[in-house]
Design goal:
By secondary structure, this protein is α/β, with parallel strands linked by helices. Helices cover 33% and strands 23% of the residues. It contains 21 helices and 23 strands. β2 and β3 form a beta hairpin. α8 crosses α9. The protein starts with a helix and ends in a 6-residue tail after the last strand. Residues 79, 81, 238, 441 line the site of zinc ion (ZN).
């Protein structure tokens, strides 16, 4: 690269580019450098040393002064639910409610603001934040909103609370059996309590009219705007439906997709798989939309005791969690994905689920692992014997650092003293040669990469404690955490040759921050501000300015 820069200095005529970002401190693979970033046709044409700047400035269609800001490779959210994020932004926000009474009050107020007979939808409740820390029952909610269905999704998406009207409309009674992969929580009498776990959520959700294409488009663009403000330039969409894929394709075709999307097809939809897998891996010419992965679920989540454990929960010996998808179904879809050259991505949180998925990859992917890069989404609780298997199988651990900091108040009770050391073991996985990528599972967590990087590095909640981080030997370094959102995320989507680093020829995806995340003290990470997000050379967000 230095040789190239020297040559450009020797030849003085103007160097053409679409945009020239000047005055930035550029985070290159070789360190932080005072360079100018020349962009042409959506790619980085050159990283220009100050000595060569004049020729580039003379030939630039636009010069953008970054005024000392720090330029990172465009961040990637490696595991999010794109349309689900948009829907969550439109629903009643129940996050942070510190009692069930507060949840009911927020829902009642929202129902009053939107009169009618339609369903009231909410998202984000978490009984672990309430004094009683146990699942709610529907009575107070049903009394507050008696005349229309209410469906409130738990923060992790793996449980809903329905009011009496919704239960009645769905025909759920004491006589209704638990559906496969799900559970209807019940009172002592056997009557439904209102809480429906995993596969049982469908019983109430299917009475809602499916979102229209216009609903989906509005939600995707709403979510994309929030992602851009957080500095993201790409999202790995962890389970894209048929209807969502159609809208994504239309947004890409019309040039209105503000972030790149790496699609994991919803593996529960046979019609979707039958339509897409025979086409093989797909990538739009502008690199904005890639379809080459399939998403499946092996189990539920830890907070709702749906994560599938090899021994009973320490705080509920009656359950080991849920096998959300039967093994035969998982194996069948993985086989079809592998045959089509698609990457399998399987949600596995409990240790029994992780073992099952690794076994499956050993049998069904085998030597093709290096080419297909199978992913274990979450990989939260990993038995010691399974740690080295990730590298052996070329399996990527797709982890969410904020799950660790959100879960630490109650995860030890769920797992007990012996197993808690198996949880969120990023350093163990790295040391054993595994590849990681980082994300948030938005809307389960706030996707803000500052929170994720902070959690990865400190394993402490962002506020309110000076205590040392939780199981700190498993923390990542700052450089590793940033790599998890950039270089490693690119690898997890087969994009390491074109994204995830600032280098000539790479996509002009930039995340511009007002400071160096690596500056001391670590609180700097939380204080950083996103100044600009650039996707393929175009601004998707500029601080203080409304953009597309
Ligand atoms: Zn997820």
């Amino acid at each position: 690269m230095l040789a190239l820069l020297a040559m450009s200095a020797a030849s003085n005529p103007p160097r053409r580019c679409d945009r020239l970002f000047v005055g930035g401190l550029v985070h290159t693979p070789d360190g932080i450098r005072r360079l100018e970033v020349a962009v042409a046709s959506g790619r980085i044409a050159a990283l220009v040393a100050p000595a060569d700047a004049a020729a580039w400035r003379a030939g630039a269609a636009e010069v953008v002064d970054l005024a000392g800001a720090h330029v990172y490779p465009g961040f990637t959210e490696s595991h999010g639910h794109f349309a689900g994020y948009g829907a969550a932004l439109e629903n009643v926000d129940l996050t942070g409610a510190t009692s069930f009474a507060e949840v009911v009050a927020r829902v009642k107020a929202a129902a009053a603001r939107t009169p009618g007979t339609g369903a009231v939808l909410g998202r984000g409740w978490d009984q672990n934040l309430w004094p009683e820390k146990s699942f709610p029952t529907h009575e107070a909610l049903s009394a507050a909103v008696p005349d229309r269905p209410v469906i409130l999704t738990r923060v992790d998406g793996h449980a809903v609370l329905a009011n009496a009207r919704a239960l009645a409309a769905a025909g759920i009674t004491a006589a209704t059996p638990d559906p496969p992969g799900g559970r209807i929580m019940r009172e002592a009498s056997g009557a439904p309590s209102g809480v429906l776990l995993d596969g049982a959520e469908e019983l109430v959700q299917r009475m809602l009219p499916p979102p229209s294409a216009a609903d989906i488009e509005r939600r995707l663009l709403l979510a994309a705007g929030h992602l851009a403000r957080d500095g993201f330039t790409e999202i790995h969409d962890a389970g894209t439906s048929r209807a969502e894929l159609a809208v994504l394709r239309e947004l890409q075709r019309s040039g209105r997709l503000p972030v790149r999307v790496y699609v994991m097809l919803a593996g529960s939809d046979d019609e979707l798989l039958a339509a897409e897998l025979p086409k093989g891996p797909q990538r739009s010419g502008d690199g904005m939309l890639t379809i080459r992965a399939v998403k499946l679920y092996a189990d539920g989540a830890l907070g709702s005791r749906g994560a599938w454990l090899s021994a009973p929960y320490s705080d509920d010996p009656t359950t080991r969690g849920l096998e959300v998808t039967p093994l035969a179904r998982l194996a069948d879809v993985v086989r079809r994905a592998v045959a089509a050259g698609y990457q399998p991505c399987i949600h596995a949180i409990g240790d029994a689920a992780v073992t099952r998925v690794l076994d499956l990859y050993e049998r069904e992917v085998g030597p093709r692992g290096a080419a297909l890069r199978p992913r274990v989404e979450h990989a939260q609780i990993v038995r010691p014997a399974d740690v080295p298997r990730f590298a052996a199988l070329s399996a990527i651990a797709s982890v969410q650092p904020t799950h660790c900091t959100s879960d630490m108040p109650w995860a030890p009770a769920r797992l007990g003293a012996a197993r808690i050391g198996w949880a969120y073991r990023w350093r163990s996985l790295l040391a054993a040669g595994a590849r990681l990528c980082l994300g948030s599972d938005v809307p389960v967590e706030d996707p803000d990469p500052r929170l994720g990087i902070w959690a990865a590095v400190t394993r402490r909640p962002p506020r309110g404690t000076a205590e040392p981080g939780w199981n700190l030997p498993e923390a990542l370094t700052l450089d590793e955490a940033v790599a998890g959102y950039t270089r490693w995320a690119a690898f997890a989507a087969f994009e390491e040759g074109s994204r995830g680093a600032l280098a000539p020829g790479f996509a002009a995806d930039l995340t511009v921050l007002d400071r160096d995340l690596g500056a001391y003290p670590p609180a700097t990470i939380l204080q950083a501000r996103v100044l600009r997000a650039v996707v393929g050379g175009r601004d998707s967000y500029v601080a203080g300015r409304e953009t597309r």
